[in-house]
Structures are given as C-alpha cells and as structure tokens.
Specification:
three-stranded mixed beta sheet, 76% helix, mainly alpha
Length: 313
C-alpha cells in the first residue's frame, strides 16, 4: 500500500493502427458534438422566438452534452496515441466527480423537460402561469444542485480509501466503479451507495417521465383535429427520442442481460453514452423540430432570401 499520485487508463487494448483510426473517428465525433450543441445554444441565444421554457431547458441539456465531451474525450484521445501516459490522482477524481454530476443533472433535466411537455399539452391555458421564469430557473438550479451534491457524496466516500501500487484502471476514463476496484480495502459500502444513488436517480425520474407521457398520450388522443394531434406528437417526438437513448443505455448497462465479459460491455456502453448520445441529441432536436429549423433559416438569412426570390417587388 502506498500514497497514489497517478493512475493509468487501459482504454481499448487494440493494435496501433486501429487506435490511430479510432483517434480520428472519436476526434470527428467530438467536433460534431461541440459544433451541434454549440449551434443549438447559439440559435436559442440569437432567436427571440426560442426564448421559451422548453428551449431554456434544452440549452442546459446542450451545456451538459458539451461538458460530457470535454470531460471524457480529451483524455481518451491522449490514451489512444500514448497508452502509457498516466492521469494524476486529482485529475482522475475530478473526472469521476464531473461525470457523475453531468449524468445526474442530465437525468433530472430530462424529467423537467417531460414536465414542461406535460403542462404544455395537458394544461395549455395555464401554461404561462405554471411554467413562469421563476419556476424554470428553480427547476434548472435544483437539477444542477442535486447532481453536484450526489456526486460529492460519492467523492467524499472515495477520497479516504487507500489504493495499492501499480494502479491500472480498466476503462477509458475514471469511472467510479472501476476506480473502486483498485482500493486495498473492502468497498462494499461505497458500491452500495453508488448503486443506490444510480437506482434512485434512474427509477424515480424514469417513472415520472413515463407517467407524464401517459398523461400526454391521453390528452393527444382527446384532440379532435388530426392536425392538432400531429403537431402535439411532433412536439414530443424529439424529447422522446432523447429520453429513449439516455435511459435505454442506462437500463442495458445496469439491468440488461450479461454475455461474455460484463466489464467490457459496460465500457462500450459508457463510450456510447459519453460520445454518441451527446452528438445525436442536437441532431434529433434539429432534424425533428420545426421551430429549430425555422430559427436556423432566420439566423442564416435563408427565410429573407426566399421571400425576396418569391416577391422581388
């Protein structure tokens, strides 16, 4: 047992050529994540028509997605080119803390967005009164605060643990369960706390989201006009896709069937969650959301150009 100052992330033990190829792909995916979510943030900031509660929540989701990419991808790219380059003990724990914070915050933001959809469709006449800016800011601050506090609890339990020599983490980032495996003492209490936190953060919000969309579905089916039903479904479809990606990955990761090597399965699922989910979210919202596409046209001046072409006088 010794005072640990650094860890080595094993990442993906593949050949050099494949690692270089992965470096290129992951760099491209990271750039797409930053550009896509940055575009969403820019559109919401520049277009006054998107200054609504729904897009206020979406802007925070985009911030979380950018933070995901900036937290895990750079170190992974370094390890692909220099597999033996270590990460400091403080840097490793910081990465663990930030990942947990962003994961919990995103989970709660998705619930908040589900509630916003529920109020918009089930109580349209009272929407402005219920979802006022004070409520919206309170919901977002609560999501971030809970994310930070739950992550601090896990970090405070992790810090006092003694670690053995030759610390090699079988992961591409400092995932908390992988770090706990390297402790020289019994970590059952830590694992129980982490698992309890994960279950409470997943089950509670998922249940709330399912209930919200059951109420939304009932309200949509009561709409008389087909156009009204299509508009309501279009409003919810983007958020449902994002919710499905987030919770689908989490459920498979924690309660799905296990084949072969469960540790390797979890590693690749977390890779999908850390890189592909943040990249796909802005694509889903931009491709399936008419308001976002119209905002992009207005910002780029395409709408004005089309009007001039159709009405030159």
């Amino acid at each position: 047992m010794t005072s640990v100052t650094e860890f080595t992330l094993l990442g993906f033990p593949l050949g050099l050529r494949i690692q270089i190829l992965l470096f290129g792909f992951f760099s491209l995916f990271c750039a797409c994540t930053l550009l896509g979510n940055g575009l969403i943030l820019g559109l919401i900031w520049l277009d006054s028509r998107l200054h609504t509660p729904m897009y206020f929540f979406l802007s925070h989701l985009a911030i979380v997605d950018i933070a995901y990419a900036c937290n895990t991808v750079p170190q992974m790219l370094v390890n692909l080119l220099k597999p033996d380059k270590p990460i400091s003990f403080a840097g490793c724990l910081t990465q663990t803390f930030l990942f947990l914070t962003f994961a919990v915050t995103e989970c709660l933001l998705l619930v908040v967005m589900s509630y916003d959809q529920y109020v918009a469709i089930c109580h349209p006449l009272r929407y402005s009164a219920i979802m006022n800016w004070r409520v919206c800011i309170t919901l977002v601050l609560t999501s971030w605060t809970i994310g930070v506090l739950l992550s601090l609890i896990d970090l405070m339990l992790l810090l006092p643990l003694p670690f053995c020599r030759f610390q090699k983490i079988n992961h591409f980032f400092c995932e908390i369960m992988a770090v706990l495996k390297l402790a020289c003492v019994d970590t059952h209490v830590n694992e129980i706390v982490v698992l309890a936190g994960a279950i409470s953060v997943l089950v509670g919000p998922l249940s709330s989201t399912v209930i919200s969309y059951m109420c939304i579905l009932c309200a949509i089916l009561r709409i008389q006009s087909g156009e009204g039903q299509r508009k309501a479904f279009s409003t919810c479809s983007s958020h449902l896709c994002v919710v499905g990606l987030f919770y689908g990955t989490a459920i498979i990761m924690y309660v799905g069937p296990r084949y072969g090597n469960p540790k390797e399965q979890k590693k690749y699922l977390l890779l999908f969650h850390s890189i592909f989910n943040p990249m796909l979210n802005p694509l889903i919202y931009s491709l399936r959301n008419l308001e976002v596409k119209n905002a992009l046209k207005r910002v780029l001046g395409i709408e004005r150009l089309m009007k001039r072409l159709w009405h030159p006088g």
